[in-house]
Amino acid sequence: MGVMLPAILMAPHTSIFIWSWFSYMNPHRNTWSFAKTLPLLDAVAAFTMVAWLTSKERKLPPAHPIVAVLLFFFLWTLVTTVFATNQDLAWDRLLIFFKIILFTFFTMIFITTPQRLRYLIYIIIVCLALYSLRGGIFTILNGGKYIVFGPSKSFLSDNIQLALAFITVVPLCFWAYKHGEHFIVRMLGGSIGALTLISVLGSHSRGALVALVGMGAWMIIIGRRWVAGPLLALAVLGGATILMPESWFERMNTIDEFEEDESANTRLRMWKYTLNATNASPVLGHGFVYIFNKTLAGKYMPGGGKIFVAHSNYFDTLGEHGYVGLFLYLLLFSCAFVTTSEIRKLTKKVEGYEWALDLAQMLQFSLVGFALGGAFLSLSIFDLYYHVVAMVMMLHYMVAKELAPEQKHVVLNQFKLRSGSTAVPAE
User: Fold this and answer.
1) What does the pLDDT look like over 227-276, one tens digit per residue?
2) Where in the sequence is the domain holding 128, given as residue range(s)?
3) Which residues, at least 6 apart from 1, have a Cβ–Cβ distance to it below 8 Å?
4) Are 101 and 182 members of one domain?
5) Do 16 and 94 sit in the same domain of this protein?
6) Radius of gyration (C-alpha) of the chain in whole angstroms
7) Both 143 and 168 in a single domain?
8) 247 and 301 share a domain?
């Protein structure tokens, strides 16, 4: 920290790398005593604010629909928090979300070059690799008998949460394998990707398996240039399942027997509870962490019983921020998804932009994987998802800044030609 914090003041964009390191690797969670709870992220945030104010870097993110939707969504969560059922817990949760959104905007401000974007991707991969390599090797050595967990007291502590992070980062590993600047980077990207897939199996998460299969199917259908990657991934998964114990197969087989599965029934009951509670306050919802309010549970929980989390990003957002909040949450995903398609159109036949074309495709796959996995897991304010959204926006900004003038020139010439001019459309 003594080296990193001054580096932020000298080069503000390094704050995004340092924040990512602490957010995804959680190195302080692997220490002991007082070091385990040091507010290191707060120190990074404070130095970043100073660097942002004093540096010559731009002060605002580029104008983009993603930026507008993200801002509106955060402001709406602020409104719902004012009227939240659990005031103390809701404000604490909002503070966490504020930090995530703040650094999402800082990412949009500082990550303005392809090289910075590339380094950010490498850092995210390496940070999660600490757990995917350990988890993959652990799964192989123990024959999948035990469950892979993440660092304690973090967003990745639960096995399902960790699996969702792995699914989101696997496409980025594929991209690093193809477009890494050095042979070592490419080999590390491929190796980390393979062991990350095995770690997903080691999480024993049925939702993660469904998301992984769904993302792989989308890769094969849409990413024709990447068919070899998903097929290789399926081969790795197929080979890895040989190691898994009978209990793993028994758990996965309950996916198509959800009517008789206690965990699936719990999800359905919590979703029903969320719908009942939201319909009582459809616009504002009930604010962050409403779900554990005993008064609400007594009124709207079908059949009573123990309270669990919502088990879905969408139901979680719906119950906390109402139908307006869910609309904004889905709109943010839609804007990011459509933007990846726009990037692909811009770069599809442009020499020298293959890296951007493929990165847009991989970011789209990450979005799809997170969206599918998020249907069964409450992790709606996970910073990795918002980082992916920020990378999509900045990639579009970089590409459009270089290629949009040429395309505008083409359109202008075509207009003149239709108007009777002798201008020839640009190639």
Assistant:
1) 555 555 555 555 555 555 555 555 555 555 544 455 667 778 888 989 99
2) 119-260
3) 40, 43
4) no
5) no
6) 23
7) yes
8) no
